[in-house]
Amino acid sequence: MATFQRARSEEQREVRRRRVLETGAEMLEEMPVAAISLNELARRAGMAKSNVLRYFESRESVLLDLLAGAAARFRAELDDGLPGAPDAPEPAEVRARGVAVALAGAFGAHPTLCELLSAQWAVLEHNVSVDVALRYKRAARDGIRWQAGFLQRLLPELDDQRALRASSMVILLVGALWTRSHPSPAVLEAFATDTSLEFLHPSFTDALAEAIATFLVGLLADPA
Amino acid sequence: MATFQRARSEEQREVRRRRVLETGAEMLEEMPVAAISLNELARRAGMAKSNVLRYFESRESVLLDLLAGAAARFRAELDDGLPGAPDAPEPAEVRARGVAVALAGAFGAHPTLCELLSAQWAVLEHNVSVDVALRYKRAARDGIRWQAGFLQRLLPELDDQRALRASSMVILLVGALWTRSHPSPAVLEAFATDTSLEFLHPSFTDALAEAIATFLVGLLADPA
DNA sequence: CAATGAAGAGACCGGCGGTCCGCTAGTGTG
DNA sequence: CACACTAGCGGACCGCCGGTCTCTTCATTG
C-alpha cells in the first residue's frame, strides 16, 4: 500500500476524492459498472478500502458521483456542438428524425455515460443515504429539464410539458437500449447460429435513434 | 434440514424443481428480485443450497425459469381476456390509446412479471450457461412475436415489422418504467418535501399507458 | 516538547454464489 | 434376504463482496 502523505487541508481531501473518481472512470472504460468492486477500486487508487470509504459513503456513491460528472460534461458538449436553431422550414416530423439521429449519435459517443445511465435506477440509487440520493436526484431533475429546453430549441412546437416527457423518455431509452445492446459473449456467439435472435439485441445507436424518432413523432401528433 | 426422501425417478426430480420455483415465486411476492438469495431460497424450500443447485445451474437460472413461466401465463391470460377485434370504426390513434391503456393495465396487474422483466437484461442473463441463455432467448423471441400478433389483431394497420417493433418496445418500457416507479423508501419520503422530484418516479400504469400510446401513434404516423 | 485528534492501514465481520466431499438411503443383483 | 453400488443429499468449505473497527502514525497546537 502506498501510504499517503496525510490530507489535512480541504484541498488535499479534494485530491483524494478526485483520485478515486479518476480511478473509477478508468475502470469504467474497461469493464461494466457491475464489475467495479470497492476492493479493486481501492487497490488501483493505491488506497486502503477503508480510506476510500472515508471520502465516499459507499461504492454506489462513487458511481453516482461519476454519473453526475459524466452527465454534466455531456450537456456542456451538447451545448457547444449543436447550437443550431431549426433553420430549414422542413416538416416537424423530419426535423424530429434529425434530432433523434443527432442525439443518438451523441449518446453513442459516450459509452461510459450510457453504461452509468443504464445502471442508475436499478443499482446506483440503492445503498445510499437519503442525503446523497436526494442530491443526485436533484441533479438528475435539472439535467432532464436542461435537456427538455435543448429539445425545445430544436423542435419549437414542443410545449414545456411535452418537452419534459420527451427528455425523460430519451434518458429512459438510452439506459434500457444500452443494456439490451450488450449481451453476454455467449449470446453474441449464438447469433451466428440463430439470426432470429438478433433483433433482441440491436445496434445501440440505430435502435436509439429509431425509438426517439418514433416517440417524438407520436408526441407531435398527440392531440392531448 | 428436512432431509428429503430421495428423488430417484424423473417425476420426483420434477417435484424438486417445482418446489424451488414455487418458493421463488413466493419470495418474489414479498421482495425485489435482487434480494432473492440462494441461501434464503434454499432455506425456505427446506433443501440444502447444494441440492437446489443440483436442479438449477445457478440462482439466475431459477429466476429465468420463473420469468418464462410468468410470461407464458400472462400471454394465456391476455388471450382469454382481450379477444375483441377492433369493432368500432374509430380513428387508429384512438384505438391505439385504448390498446395502450389495456396493455398497461394488464402488466400492472402482474407485478412479479414486471419485476422479472425489469431485471432480465441486466441481471438474469448473466451467470448462466450458453444453453440456458439460448433456451430462454428463444422463449423471449417467441413471446415478443406472439405479442406482435396480438397487437396486430387490435391494430390491423400495423404491418409485421412495425408490430414487432411495437412489441419489443412494450417489453422494454415495462421493464424500464417498472424500475423507475419503485424508488427506495428514502426517496419516497423525500417527495413530501420536494415535489419537483416526483416526475422522476411516476405511477407505473399511467406512465406505461402514456408511453405505449405515444409510441404507437408515432409508429402509425411514421412514413417509413 | 508533549498532548491531541484526524488520516490511514489492515484485520475483521457477516453474507453472498458456488463447490466438494463424505454419508447413507434406495436400488438392482446374486 | 444380504450385499454392493451409486446417486441424492447435507454441510463444511472457498473466495469474494461491501462495510466496520481498531490501532498506528504524525501534523498541528498549546
TrEMBL record, chains A, B:
Pfam families: TetR_C_34, TetR_N. Keywords: DNA-binding. The keyword DNA-binding applies. InterPro entries: Homeodomain-like_sf, HTH-type_TetR-like_transc_reg, HTH_TetR, TetR_C_34. Residues 37-56 bind DNA. The keyword rRNA processing does not apply. PANTHER family: HTH-TYPE TRANSCRIPTIONAL REGULATOR PKSA, HTH-TYPE TRANSCRIPTIONAL REGULATOR RUTR. This is TetR/AcrR family transcriptional regulator.
